[in-house]
Amino acid sequence: MLTDSPPRKTNRTGFLKSDRIKSLDLPQDGCLFAIAKSIESTLRTAKPIDLYRACAQFLDGASTFYNVPDCVIRVLAARVLRLRERGTFELFGDYAPETMLIGVWMRTAEPKEITSFGIFLSTLCHEFCHHLDFQKFGYPDSWHIRGFYEPAAVLYHHARGTPQKRLFGVSMAGGDGASTGRGRTRPHAGKSLEWQTI
Ligand SMILES: [Zn+2]
Fold first, then answer.
1. Where are the domains positioned within the chain?
2. 64, 78, 154, 167: least CB-packed within 10 angstroms?
3. Ligand 1 centre and the CA of 113: distance in Å?
4. Which residues partner with 187 through β-bridges?
């Protein structure tokens, strides 16, 4: 996971505030875990309509708990490839703040195999956390920073029923990372951190 560098002027305050959030309240009724199980089983069937319904149910449950407007889900076929200076990468998901539309891809780019459940659910939680940044926390943007990855990981592990893992940062001087998942990609120059789980 590559982090975005702080903006130089505009939105810098929001960026720093966003980076301080390290956790997330979680529903205690087990509903997201149960729905995630149905996502896992429908992913195996490879039927987009069933997967769409399960994802929509997951997002409805999460949106209700966090008291944010419902977002819309698109379940897409094979991931698209994006060409960047440093190579080609696959887009796993995206979120458009203007339309509150989340897109997730159910197959890898090449070969077109069904995405693993862990990656699929992680992507869904990741994109929903972009939704929270805008609709719950009111940030003017949603950055890929530790304050984003931590709550996204909390939500993912809660939904999957797995133990939380700590994130640690690795400095990358002069990094030119490509961020995926917001419906846009952008280079960010300067020093950045790569976050990994342990
Ligand atoms: Zn993202």
1. 12-197
2. 64
3. 22
4. 178
